[in-house]
Amino acid sequence: MSVSDTVLEIISAETKTPVKDIDLKADIRDMGIDSLATVEIVVEIEDQLGIEIPEDSVTELIIIEDIIKLCQKLHS
């Protein structure tokens, strides 16, 4: 599974939104993801991808596509 697929699956599970319905340009807040859910998503991404997302980056994770790009960068 690619980094993108992994991130989308995690977000899908958290929001109960089918992966096919997730807009990569969507603001996570518009998807009902609050700060607690963001932390849960970040922890799950870190566990599944074996990466560490810097704490100062977490507050900048607003757009789904940005989350994927950061994870791809950290995973490579």
Present the secondary structure layout:
Layout: H1 3-15, H2 35-49, H3 55-58, H4 64-75
Report on the architecture of this protein:
The protein is mainly alpha-helical and 76 residues long. 58% of the residues lie in helices and 0% in strands. Helix 1 runs antiparallel to helix 2 (35-49) and helix 1 packs across helix 4. The chain is globular, with a radius of gyration of 11 Å. The two termini are 14 Å apart. The relative contact order is 0.21.
Radius of gyration: 11 Å
* Unreliable segments of 5+ consecutive residues: none
Structural shape: globular
Structural class: mainly alpha
How many strands?
A: 0
- How much is the average pLDDT? 93
Total number of helices: 4
Proportion of residues in extended strands: under 5%
Helicity, as a percent range? 55-70%
Largest sheet: none
* N-C termini distance: 14 Å
H-E string: HHHH
Give the tags:
single chain; mainly alpha; 4 helices; about 80 residues
In short:
This protein has four helices and no strands. The protein has 76 residues and is mainly α. 18% of the residues are buried.
